[in-house]
Each structure stands twice: as structure tokens, then as C-alpha cells.
Amino acid sequence: MGRPLLQMRGIAKRFAGVHALKGVDFELESGEVHGLLGENGAGKSTLMKMLAGIYPVDEGEIFIEGNKVSINSVKDAQAHGISIIHQEISLVPHLSVAENIFLGKEPVTKIGWIDWKKMMEDARTYLRQFGLELAPETPVKKLTVAQQQMIEIIKAVSFQAKMIVMDEPTSSLTEKEVEFLFQIIGRLKEQGVGIVYISHRMNELFTITDRITVLRDGNLIGTVKTKETTTDQLIAMMVGRELTQYYIKDASPASDGDIVLSVRNLSKKGVLNEAGFDLRKGEILGFAGLVGAGRSELMKCIFGLDAYDKGEIRIDGKPVIIRNPNDAIKHGIAYVTENRKEEGLFLIRSVQYNITIKILDQFIRWFRVNARYESQKTRQFIHELAIKTPNPDQEVRNLSGGNQQKVLISRWLATNPRILILDEPTRGVDVGAKAEIYAIMNRLVKEGVSIILISSELPEVINMSDRIAVMYKGGIRAVLNRDEFSQETIMHYATGG
Ligand SMILES: Nc1ncnc2c1ncn2[C@@H]1O[C@H](COP(=O)(O)OP(=O)(O)OP(=O)(O)O)[C@@H](O)[C@H]1O
Ligand SMILES: [Mg+2]
Asked: How far does residue 201's CA lie from ligand 2's centre (Å)?
């Protein structure tokens, strides 16, 4: 074999107060899929952002096909054939799907104008390849997070790159879309493209990668051949100890609890179709369905973020009208949105601000904010959810993806909700932190809180839920009890069966 496509040697990076990478080596062959694994905050995204020209390298060297290169900007990286799918979606909301895909590389006509016809046609071809039923003219802001994630993927793939970094490309995709992505990855491999694949989903790493490199606290722990390793070995490398229990849902006899939330015939043109369900006290009701089935849309209507055309919502048996999130919060509903960047976090505010924003009134005593109590509350959540931050004043945008997610969950837990809607709560969260989130869910249901769990990871829904509602084209196709749970049954209903 000749020189590797990419070699990174002794890479180090410091941010104020954080030593994010400490002399890491990384290698990628052409035609290889190389997994990158590590706990939240381990340094995965930082390493790849240096390759993609987003952060300058503090220390270390980068070689491409044996030649030393210096990458000082995104343009440099692109010139070296490096393309990246970011962990946080970075599309331009008001531009169309096609414009986003071809941004900066628009096809031109002979006289140098943008060839709109070709652009739309090419976009249509990509959309079809990825199984997306979308018009290329659709503005990106109208898409769900999962659809936006697919567009990010298409955008990176359409660059004709030599290497593609995929930073958690599937975190909000369901099995069907993941399959499309894997087919595309297979094709890219055949063309000799090297792929760096970052994911917390072990099964994906085992399906798709040739080698896996593990980072812990900015250190390189090792690189292993996927065929010669096991999940337990990888987890031990990641966390530095054995950790065998991934799912820890306790049996809950809540099936005859009172109905706290009941939804009937909720419809919204083109999105929801007579959707209805009951949520009982102290249960976890899972929601499964393909991308676009309407799960998040349904929750947005219930939480007052979106209007619906008709239907009824009852809380404790009484019809209620929820016009906006404040109404919902007054009824004890909390909603951890899947879209942490657009609808969730205040990125340039501190960890403390983000955690306590919904409960500030609790800290007001004699017309003053009780700062000590506020900071105590913040530290409690930082501790309970093991949020990795140098201090409570750190800006949230400087936290790793998984730790941002934990901040968002903390905010809503702080409101002591009776009904907690979790939309992809473990998106981008590492195995250890997942177990912590599951433990918190268990504790809450024991205290009588009712939880709605939307997750694109079927094993998660199956393991955590007491019942599962399966959505298809805006309606609820089936509600399954625990003894009926199986991937096959859920997929059957999710595809309209
Ligand atoms: N711009 C920044 N300023 C300050 N600290 C940063 C910045 N970017 C990253 N960090 C810190 O560097 C460390 C590594 O973060 P990084 O995003 O690389 O983690 P990760 O392995 O990608 O984690 P995750 O699985 O949660 O995405 C974290 O402690 C993070 O808070
Ligand atoms: Mg990351």
C-alpha cells in the first residue's frame, strides 16, 4: 500500500480553560471508513474541525498523500478535497434545498450565469437517490431536522471530495434513511473516497467502519480493526472502565394510571391527520415512525409552538386550549425540542442562563434574584447530568454537542413538569450519559411524571417505553403494548401496514 490518504500527527488544541486535544495521531486510507469514538467532549469534532479548516492547528502536522499541508481556511480544506458534514446543521434557512446543496458550486451556463434548470434537475436526482420526497425548490426552513440532516449529507457528497468527514450524520435519522446513507457510503468507498465516521451508535460503527479510533479527554487511546473488536472493548476504551448496562428501564405497573393527557382527532393540513392518543400518569409512551411521519409536528401542536386546524386536547379530562408554550408550561408540560440550535439553546449565553431561564421566578426573593440559590441549582444539574464545562459561566456554544443537549434537558427538568415531552433526548449523547438520562427518566416516572419519548433509535424506544404509538403519514397507526414490541411490528406499522 502506498502512502495513506491522510495522516494527522501530534495534533494539539487548547481553548481558554480547556485542553481539548493532547497530541493525537490519526490516519485514513483511501476507500476506508474510519470510525471516531469517544465520550461527549472527548475532542472528536475539534480534531475534525482542524482538518476542515475551521480551527487552526496549535501543534502537530497534517499530511495528505504523503505531502505536508497547512490548512488555514475552509477553502484550503476544500481545495485539498476535504468535505465535512457538521454535527450541528449549518444550512441557510431561507434558501431552497437545491441552492443549499449547490451553494458555492452552482452549475453555470455557457455564458456564466447560474444554470437553474440543471441545478434543480441535479438536486432532484440526489433527492431521489436518498429517497426524499421533496421538491428542490422547498425552502430549507420548512424541513424537519431529519430532512435537513439529509440535505447536509447530500451537500457534502456532491462535492466530489477525496475525504468526507461525517460528524454524527445519523443522529436524527431513522433506520430507513440510515440505510440510504450506508448505500451511498458503499459507493463512495468503491470510488476510493476516505470517510471519517463519528457516531455514538455502536451498531452503525460495526456495520460501516473498517477501523475505529477512540479518544478520551483529548488523548488518543488507540486504533483498532473493527472486525477484531467488541462493543465492550470499545466502551472500556472510551470510558476507562467496564460498563455493561445500556438500557435500564424498570418495569412499571403504570398501565392503569389516570389519563393525564388525551389528544383527539388532531389535524393540520398536509402534516397531521386525525392523530389521537392517551397518556397515562407515570408511563413512558414512545413514539416511533419514519422521518416525516409527523411525530415532532404533533408535539409542537400540543406544546403550542404550532397551530392545528382541528382537534381536541384534554388535560386531566378537561378540554384545554394551548395557544403558545406559556399556556403549555402552565399546564405542567415541558418540551425538550429536537432542534437544540434553532428552537432550544441560547448559544451565546452561559450554561447557567440556559439552565435557569424557565425558573428564574423561583430565585426572586424580596424583588432580588437570589444568585446563590440560582448557581446552586445550576451546579446540581451540572453534577447530576455530568455536564462537561469548565464552569457555569461558559458560553453554551463552546460546549461539545452532547453536552449542549444535556444543558437543554436540564432546563426542562428544572421546571418540574407533570408531562415531559422528550424529542430525541439522547441525540448525540454518549453511552454513559445515555444511561444517566435513562436513570432520570426512570426516577421521574416513579414520581408520577408522564413522559412522551420520540426517538429515531428503535432499540431505545423499545427498551424505554411502556407503550409505543406508531405514526404514519400524520396519523397514529397503532399503539402497542410491551408484549407486542418488536422492530418488525413497529416497521410494519411505520410503513403503513
Ligand atoms: N470553541 C470552543 N471554545 C472553548 N471550548 C471548546 C470549543 N470547542 C470545543 N471546546 C471544548 O473542547 C472539548 C472537546 O469538544 P468536542 O466538541 O471536540 O467534543 P466531541 O468529542 O465532539 O463531543 P460530542 O460527542 O459531545 O460531540 C470540550 O470540552 C469542549 O467544551
Ligand atoms: Mg462533537
From this structure: 13
Ligand 1 atom at minimum distance from 394 CA: 4
Q: How far is the CA of 406 from the centre of ligand 1 (A)?
A: 14
pLDDT the model gives residue 440: 87
pLDDT tens digits for range 269-316 = 989 999 999 999 999 999 999 878 899 999 999 999 999 999 999 999
Distance separating alpha carbons of residues 463 and 263, to the nearest angstrom: 24
C-alpha of residue 402 to centroid of ligand 2, in Å: 7
**Where does the pLDDT of residue 1 fall: very low under 50, low under 70, confident under 90, or very high at 90 and above?**
low
Beta strands in 299-394 (DSSP E): 310-315, 318-320, 333-336, 364-365, 368-369
Assigned fold of 6-239: Rossmann fold (3.40.50)
Ligand 1 geometric centre to CA of 9 (Å): 19
Of 340, 400, 429, 431, the residue with max ligand 1 atoms within 8 A of its CB, to mutate for a pocket test, comes to 400
| pTM metric for this prediction | 0.79
Which residues of the chain does CATH 3.40.50.300 include?
6-239, 254-494
Least confident of 85-89, 403-407, 491-495: 85-89
Determine the 3-state secondary structure of 327 from DSSP: helix
Helix (H) or strand (E) holding 188: helix 175-190
Q: Which three cell numbers stand for residue 209?
A: 467502519
Check if CATH label 1.20.1260.10 holds for domain 254-494: no
Closest CA to ligand 1's atom 6: 398
What would the grid cell of residue 398 be? Answer: 463552546
Cα–Cα distance, 398 to 351 (Å, whole number): 10
Of ligand 1's atoms, which has the minimum distance to the CA of residue 400? 17
